[in-house]
Structures are given as structure tokens and as C-alpha cells.
Amino acid sequence: MGEGGEEIAEEKVMDISLKDLAKKLEDFAKARDWEKYHSPRNLLLAMVGEVGELSEIFQWKGEVDKGLPNWEESDKEHLGEELSDVLLYLVRLADICGIDLGDVATKKIIKNSIKYPPKIC
What we know:
About 60% of the residues lie in helices and about 0% in strands. It contains 4 helices and no strands. Helix 1 crosses helix 3 and helix 2 runs antiparallel to helix 3. Its main location: cytoplasm. Its cofactor is Mg(2+).
């Protein structure tokens, strides 16, 4: 059991929607009475801090190969934790701001595909 009595999932979750993540984060904050701290500004600043921690992982590594073949498992695990922190703050920020992140991200991809069409050989 985790803090607050909720069960900690042992099995790997393969697919979860952004809306499901947002709901889990909302429930997590409510259970701890943290909603009063989750203003857009506070969430943004927390996310920026996590982006800084993520940046530190790559700071002196130079370019790295896709898949990180030369990295230790512990370094990959640390990277995953920091990526997760950034994602979770982003999802929570979007939810607090009333932004459907999945919808706007999809629209942005379409907009970018028009702005940057594929090269025709």
C-alpha cells in the first residue's frame, strides 16, 4: 500500500490516456489537500524545475545514440523518473487550465504538417 492507503500497481500499465492521467493526478492532489497549491503558476514553476533536473542528466554527455545503448540501467531509470515528472506536471497544468492536451497536441501536429510539408523527391 502507498501513502494514503491506495494500492500501488505492481503490473506495468501499457496504455493510459492523458485524461486518465489527469484524473489520477487530480485524485492524488485531492487526497492530500494539495489542490490549493496547484495554481497554473506553481505548476509551471515546478515543471520548469523538473525540466532542469532532466537537462542535468544530458548536460555533459554530448550527443547520445537512440535507445541509449551505452547507458547503465540505473541512468535510464533516473531518466524515466525525470521524464515522468515533467509529463505529470504538464498534464496537471493543462488540466488546471482547462486545456485538452490530447486535442491541442493533435491539432498542433496537423498545423505543423501544413507549415512544414514533406519534401517530394
